[in-house]
């Protein structure tokens, strides 16, 4: 199997979950991950010991510019290079999980008549998958809302493979390894795989409130945003209490998540699949900077099922954040109800569904 997904964690982790499930089911399988030279995948994938090749590719910019000519040239070159890799590796199937790089790889495979499939995580179809939908054999979607946006004869609901991975893990992670209390309710705050500026700024200010709380807080800033937040905290002499810990990134999220009592974060599709797989109550602050405002649509699907609260980025301030956090963290009954509602939305066999469908298109 060749798998390609790039750019951000939301596209990479579902791909890794598929690889893990395939190797569990058929340990003799050979797998190759094709990512981009720029995205998070070039850090994450090789560390997992998975064979990895990178292509140079970039996204379109909205304004007409020379940059977009370069984008087209890089895309064509990446298709050419993908064909060489595919010819060499001879995959039985090629799967794309989104991001520009998967556009080139899956398109190349379809032109070579290799069976192809894509996975769309979001409730609103992304640019790459919209383009690929005409060329692939099967389309798996993570949200039922996305089905009608694709050709009906090849599209099926499968949830998000990462959900199966996090739902099945036996975690013996302990908060004491972070210097926290193993018995206190724990709130995890993070702004998607890259962190989010406004969430970070407001959370940094909210630390003064969190210091006096009966619950504990794990605040994840995103790798590239860590230094500036720590400088802000130092410069403003914000005291960080024993019940608050600040990290740049969590690389073992599947072990951590089962020990989390509530999450404040963005509404990226892969995060929501994890949240509902485990039944974690959440406060969602959708990113307003994504295509067709898809994170708001992702978030509302949880909100209307009583699984989450929502705060728009415009309405986000310390008072709103801390009031909502206290409402959930200090009220076990409300938390348990949200937990149940969240769990009921989870799809916990997604990787199996996607692989079964992949087998059905093998030549
Ligand atoms: C700004 C942007 O384009 N966001 C998109 C991107 O988000 P993004 O990459 O942030 O995706 P998600 O929020 O869906 O997923 C983040 C993933 O990173 C993991 N994680 C996060 C932080 C951390 O410290 N460690 C860690 O492992 C999470 O557990 C999760 O698996 O892809 C998603 C899925 O297509 C889309 O819905 C989002 O709209």
UniProtKB/TrEMBL annotation:
It catalyses: Mur2Ac(oyl-L-Ala-gamma-D-Glu-L-Lys-D-Ala-D-Ala)-di-trans,octa-cis-undecaprenyl diphosphate + UDP-N-acetyl-alpha-D-glucosamine = beta-D-GlcNAc-(1->4)-Mur2Ac(oyl-L-Ala-gamma-D-Glu-L-Lys-D-Ala-D-Ala)-di-trans,octa-cis-undecaprenyl diphosphate + UDP + H(+). One of its GO terms (molecular function) is undecaprenyldiphospho-muramoylpentapeptide beta-N-acetylglucosaminyltransferase activity. GO terms for cellular component: plasma membrane. Residues 186-345 form the Glycosyl transferase family 28 C-terminal domain. InterPro entries: GlcNAc_MurG, Glyco_trans_28_C, GlycoTrans_28_N. UDP-N-acetyl-alpha-D-glucosamine binds at residues 8-10, 122, 193, 250, 295. Residues 2-140 form the Glycosyltransferase family 28 N-terminal domain. Its EC number is 2.4.1.227. It is a peripheral membrane protein. Pathway: Cell wall biogenesis; peptidoglycan biosynthesis. CDD domains: GT28_MurG (cd03785). It comes from the Bacteria. It is found in: Cell membrane. SUPFAM superfamilies: UDP-Glycosyltransferase/glycogen phosphorylase. GO terms for biological process: carbohydrate metabolic process; cell division; cell wall organization; peptidoglycan biosynthetic process; regulation of cell shape. Keywords: Cell cycle, Cell division, Cell membrane, Cell shape, Cell wall biogenesis/degradation, Glycosyltransferase, Membrane, Peptidoglycan synthesis, Transferase. NCBIfam families: murG. Cell wall formation. Catalyzes the transfer of a GlcNAc subunit on undecaprenyl-pyrophosphoryl-MurNAc-pentapeptide (lipid intermediate I) to form undecaprenyl-pyrophosphoryl-MurNAc-(pentapeptide)GlcNAc (lipid intermediate II). Belongs to the glycosyltransferase 28 family. MurG subfamily. PANTHER family: GLYCOSYLTRANSFERASE, UDP-N-ACETYLGLUCOSAMINE--N-ACETYLMURAMYL-(PENTAPEPTIDE) PYROPHOSPHORYL-UNDECAPRENOL N-ACETYLGLUCOSAMINE TRANSFERASE 1. This is UDP-N-acetylglucosamine--N-acetylmuramyl-(pentapeptide) pyrophosphoryl-undecaprenol N-acetylglucosamine transferase.
